[in-house]
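A.,

Following up on our hallway conversation. Structure tokens first:
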């Protein structure tokens, strides 16, 4: 029997998988931080550059401030940053010196642990990123073996990469990252021991999703095969397309004879908080999923499922979801079996939507697909289908993108954007529109507190005070009176 640790994922992966990365802001994060720190998690999967961009774009918040405040609130639990290849916020592939600055700045603001998930399972890229993050001052580096199903992703593919990564002095542990929730208990029975056999004494973690009901069952068997930590979400941020729920996983692993050294009361508090948050804000609640063999065809990860549904709803086309999902599988095969994770998941999804809504398939091809075909994201695992490659190469846009220069040297970017900016502001302005960065609001004390119990009345007050067509409104209840007048003064008794 094994001693199993938990990595908490609600703020990052649960939020992304179920709430399109929009369910959490600084106040909601800091409110639950003290309880999270008491649980005894191995780490908190806290943010990615994508989430940092969302904080700026949709919440008008400074993501660096959020990291600093959370690190101060969780002195006992490492915060994790997930890096997906050599990119930071922007889709553009970043230069090594730019990524080195990003890693250093993340460490300076409170990130102690880096998960490195290269979307190609590129060994050289993972080793380079591990060395870079360690040089920046990170204390724990965990490269991912990104799991997928395809004719070329067999056990040998993962064993080869695990052996080389585990031999690096910059690597502290490895984790199997299963963004699609595809790893079954049967496949885990051979894959996990094969990986562990070449890792020496370095730990192996497992990160899976519940999308088709496999993730939680695989977690039950994983400790028997050598996994020492599993990554879970809590309360309403778990299950569904998210990660297995921490309370249930902990209870079931203990029933199977394993030990989990955590504060159960604090864990229950964390779980209950996300339940109340989802109820107060009308956010989707994850629930147990049934097995769906059709999902094995397209493998869209949980985080992108939420984003896809939001985009289709915004464009008033939710009815084409089934067609898009079917097209995803076809596009992936034609593009040489890329792993369906960021950034390829978003690229494949965009192409699939265009194929479904366009006059014909590949009538429009996004720039990122063209860059992929040109090798700017690395070499595809197998050649792109000839008819698709021929169409891409015949486009005038392809010739333009083939000639485009890479990211400018760091010194030139500094000169162009602002030589006297802090590293934090420079990194945001180098990767996001200036207007969005300008619109960020200072955090203030109010932005650090959130109470789901009064969320509805707080939102009502915001909406009413924003209106100019109401002269006065009053709410009277036993023991409570709220009056709003046109001069926006608030009286409460």
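Then the amino acids I'd put at each of the 493 positions:
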């Amino acid at each position: 029997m094994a001693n199993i640790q938990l990595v908490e994922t609600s703020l990052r992966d649960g939020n992304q998988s179920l709430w399109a990365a929009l369910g959490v802001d600084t106040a909601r994060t800091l409110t639950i931080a003290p309880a999270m720190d008491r649980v005894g998690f191995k780490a908190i999967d806290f943010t990615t550059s994508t989430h940092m961009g969302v904080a700026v774009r949709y919440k008008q918040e400074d993501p660096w401030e959020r990291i600093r405040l959370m690190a101060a609130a969780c002195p006992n639990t490492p915060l994790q940053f997930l890096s997906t290849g050599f990119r930071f916020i922007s889709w553009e592939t970043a230069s090594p010196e730019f990524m080195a600055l990003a890693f250093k700045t993340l460490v300076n603001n409170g990130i102690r642990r880096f998960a490195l998930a290269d979307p190609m399972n590129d060994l050289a890229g993972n080793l380079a990123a591990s060395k870079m993050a360690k040089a920046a001052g990170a204390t724990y580096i965990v490269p991912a073996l990104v799991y997928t199903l395809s004719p070329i992703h067999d056990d040998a593919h993962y064993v080869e990469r695990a052996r080389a990564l585990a031999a690096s002095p910059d690597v502290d542990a490895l984790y199997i990252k299963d963004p699609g929730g595809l790893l079954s208990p049967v496949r885990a029975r051979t894959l996990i021991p094969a990986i562990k056999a070449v890792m020496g004494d370095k730990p192996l973690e497992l990160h899976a999703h519940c999308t088709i009901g496999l993730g939680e069952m695989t977690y039950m068997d994983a400790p028997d095969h050598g996994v020492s930590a599993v990554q879970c979400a809590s309360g309403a941020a778990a299950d569904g397309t998210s990660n297995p729920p921490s309370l249930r996983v902990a209870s079931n692993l203990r029933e199977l004879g394993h030990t989990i050294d955590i504060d159960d009361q604090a864990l229950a508090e964390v779980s209950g908080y996300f339940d109340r948050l989802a109820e107060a804000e009308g956010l989707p609640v994850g629930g147990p999923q049934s097995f769906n063999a059709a999902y094995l065809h397209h493998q869209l990860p949980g985080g992108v499922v939420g984003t896809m549904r939001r985009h289709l709803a915004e464009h008033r086309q939710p009815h084409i979801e089934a067609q898009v999902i079917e097209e995803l599988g076809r596009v992936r095969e034609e593009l040489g079996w890329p792993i369906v994770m960021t950034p390829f998941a978003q690229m494949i999804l965009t192409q699939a939507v265009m194929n479904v809504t366009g006059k014909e398939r590949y009538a429009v091809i996004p720039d990122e697909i063209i860059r992929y075909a040109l090798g700017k994201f690395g070499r595809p695992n197998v050649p792109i289908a000839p008819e698709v490659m021929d169409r891409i190469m015949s486009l005038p846009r392809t010739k333009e993108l083939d000639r485009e220069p890479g990211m400018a040297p760091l010194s030139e970017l500094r000169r162009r954007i602002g030589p006297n900016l802090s590293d934090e502001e420079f990194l945001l302005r180098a990767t996001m529109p200036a207007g969005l960065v300008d619109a960020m609001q200072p955090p203030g004390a109010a932005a650090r507190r959130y109470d789901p119990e009064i969320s509805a009345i707080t939102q009502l007050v915001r909406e009413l005070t924003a209106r100019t067509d109401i002269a006065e409104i009053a709410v009277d209840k036993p023991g409570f009176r709220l009056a709003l007048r046109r001069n926006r003064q608030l009286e409460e008794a």
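The first strand starts at residue 5 and ends at 8. Curious whether your intuition agrees with the design.

B.
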